[in-house]
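Appendix B. One record, verbatim.
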Amino acid sequence: MAKFWNFVIFQLGWFACIIGAAKQEVLWPALGTLAYIAWHIWRSPQPILELRLIIKAVLFGVSADSLIAYFGFLRFEDAWPSANLSPLWMWALWALVASTINSSLSWLRGRPILGAILGGIAGPMSYEAGIRMGAGAWGIHGQIGGLVLLSLVWAVAIPLFFYWDRIAAGPSLAKNQ
């Protein structure tokens, strides 16, 4: 049942942050999402490992999104703290994605090819949906280039997050399936 609620909260957090960005009112959705992340970490069987995974995922995501935006393939609405950096609400969304690794996406554990395929498809689709809802726009270099770059980022991200989680847990620690 916890996996179901993780999935539901992921969806609610995604919609809240996207709609908030589109309306230039992202503070409460981002704070609400981050509050869930704090609760998720607190409830985790291994809070320190979960926190480390989330921090790594956020750093990866913020770096990737910032580079894609910097090179003119993507533009975010409500771009606080800087127009040259992935916005705070995207940080919350990357943390939200990381919160699914040991919960609603745990069925992908040990399936890196499937994780890469699903990440490479679902990640860019999520950005396209967010753009269509008004949370951003394609940059001067266009939609196709942006989608290709996002597909590559997400095809790497999902298996990488599982790898980081496995390395942190160590060989003697079995993960839930």
